[in-house]
Amino acid sequence: FGRYLMPLTPLTAIGFATLLAWLTAGARRRVRPLVAAGIGGILAFQALILFVVYTQQHPTVQAGTHRLFFYDEPWRAHDAAIAWLGAHAAPDTVVATSTPHVVYLATGHRAVFPPFEPDVTTAADLLDAVPVAYVIVDSLDFVDISRRYAGPVVTTFRDRWTLVYGAPDGGSRVYQRVKS
Q: Whole-prediction pTM value?
């Protein structure tokens, strides 16, 4: 939620600076050192908070050396599943996932969304029509497409899908179509 309030930061800073200028302009000599110490304390505290947030809550992305905001454990587990898929799937594989763009960019495999079909039998037929060889059922918080639509398909039709990768922490799981 804080990222939506970030555009207000410059206005808040201007208001804060104006308030401090007003306070110090009319203040006596004894009050000015206190105001300066308060400003210094606020700046030091903000620097500490920035350091803690950046180092503790924004870890390095698995595939590179850059850091992303809001890249939490479910995303790291999802990246691990995609890395496994990239190492084990054939080049002409089609993957159904809630993040087809990420799968394509990371592995080069063709990727599609699972069908947005609540009927399990119809969804299974649609996956067969593509034909999808792998399904990733993730634990991402922002969207539950794979859990809502693909998850019931792979659990209902266990004879068609087998679990080939499961994150140790219960994150993303990769299912492969059983060869008939």
A: 0.65
